[in-house]
Design a protein that fits this description.
Blueprint: H1 2-9, H2 11-53, H3 61-121, H4 136-185, H5 192-219, E1 228-230, H6 232-250, E2 253-258, E3 265-267, H7 269-285, E4 292-300, E5 303-310, H8 336-339, H9 344-354, E6 359-362, E7 370-377, H10 382-386
Helix pairs in contact: 2-3, 3-4, 4-5, 5-9, 6-7, 7-9
């Protein structure tokens, strides 16, 4: 029983046994066929030989014919058995060779995948398997490596997120701790302004936690969208009016340019408003006094475009591909208090992509302003939808 269990667990033995069963069944069929067809076939051949040799016309032909028939039958059966024995032996040896070759081609890569998968499970996410070829095993190895690459990138993002969150929490917590120690030691007066400083840091922590929750849901694709056809131009105007007071306080002009006859787009109005507010807030933050921010909305190529252009600090080319990464900052020396949580653009990217659109940033260079553009698919006309 133990030997049988081992054989069942070994793919090489399974292949060999399958070949052996096929050979034995084939040999059995040949033997049965020869046994069943032997009397009729031999009878016809013996009669033919007797006719050709003239045995039937001689005396005692009956006795000689019977002896000849028995002799031919015995020799024929012996020859068939010998041929079947040799063929079966050769077939078994061939089955062993073929099973060993097939097992090497199949079991070898599978054994490598098993070893690598155990190493990945132990935390070595950089492990990869060799590509055995372009067949099904090669496709399996390619898929396995893609899975390992995804796991490695996920682990890297997890470690980066832990470091980023720790860095984000350190500043407000250190400020709160310093203020409280000053109050306990009597260095700071117990005045409303002191407690307001603590309240501002707590508000920053609450905002950071909320942004992290939003980011977590966005990256997991778990933000629900209430999609309905809507007017993107009206939404852009409403978002601009919402922040216009802040623009006026800083002395930055805000303009909205919406194309006429703008087709409706299928969107979640509250989520796209969140994207617009993030982009406008980002533009306001990096545009100096007397600068200008322009929001343009237009349509083309079965999609609607929204561009937020500012005359602010601009971005160098090496930073553009990374602007939508979480916690990424062009100027690392800027304080978190003046720059937000650093994940607003990341959340915006996920929201736009969840709508089936895309978002990107452009800038001629440092000091020459920047433009953030995103697209949303148009709602097809009723006649096209019906077709």
């Amino acid at each position: 029983m133990k030997l049988l269990a081992i054989l069942r667990q070994r793919l090489a033995w399974k292949l060999f046994l399958s070949y052996l069963v096929i050979i034995l069944v084939g040999a059995l069929i040949l033997a049965l066929t020869a046994t069943l067809s032997e009397p009729d076939i031999l009878g016809r051949h013996i009669s033919y030989m007797q006719t050709v040799m003239g045995i039937a016309s001689q005396a005692g032909a009956g006795q000689s014919g019977a002896a000849l028939a028995n002799n031919l039958r015995d020799n024929f059966v012996a020859a068939i058995n010998e041929i079947l024995l040799v063929a079966t032996t050769v077939s078994v040896m061939t089955a062993v060779a073929v099973s060993l070759f097939t097992a090497k081609r199949i079991v070898g890569p599978l054994r490598d995948m098993t070893t690598v998968s155990r190493r990945i499970a132990a935390g070595s996410y950089h492990q990869r398997v060799q590509m055995p070829g372009e067949d099904e095993l090669g496709t399996l190895a390619q898929s396995f490596n893609q899975m390992a690459e995804t796991l490695e990138q996920t682990e890297l993002r997890r470690m980066a997120l832990i470091g980023d969150v720790a860095h984000e929490l350190r500043t407000p917590l250190s400020s709160i701790r310093g203020t409280m120690e000053g109050l306990v030691d009597g260095v700071l007066p117990a005045e409303p302004s002191t407690f307001l400083d603590v309240q501002r840091e707590v508000t920053r922590l609450q905002r950071l936690v909320h942004d992290l929750e939003e980011l977590s849901r966005a990256e997991a694709g778990q933000i629900p969208l209430d999609l309905h056809p809507g007017d993107l131009g009206a939404l852009a105007r409403a978002a601009a009016d919402r922040l216009r007071v802040q623009f006026d306080d800083k002395g930055v002009c805000l303009q909205v340019d919406v194309a006429s006859a703008l087709p409706p787009v299928r969107m979640d109005a509250s989520r796209i408003t969140q994207v617009l507010v993030n982009l406008l807030g980002n533009a306001l933050q990096y545009t100096p006094t007397s600068g200008c921010v322009t929001v343009r909305v237009w349509a083309g190529d079965h999609q609607a475009f929204v561009a937020v252009h500012d005359t602010g600090l601009g971005v160098s080319a090496e930073h553009l591909p990374h602007l939508f990464e979480r916690f990424y900052r062009v100027d690392r020396s800027r304080s978190r208090a003046g720059g937000g949580s650093g994940i607003g653009l990341t959340i915006s990217r996920h929201l736009v992509e969840a709508h089936g659109g895309r978002i990107w940033a452009e800038s001629p260079g440092v000091g020459q302003g920047s433009t953030f553009t995103f697209t949303l698919p148009e709602v097809m006309p009723h006649s096209k939808r019906a077709s």
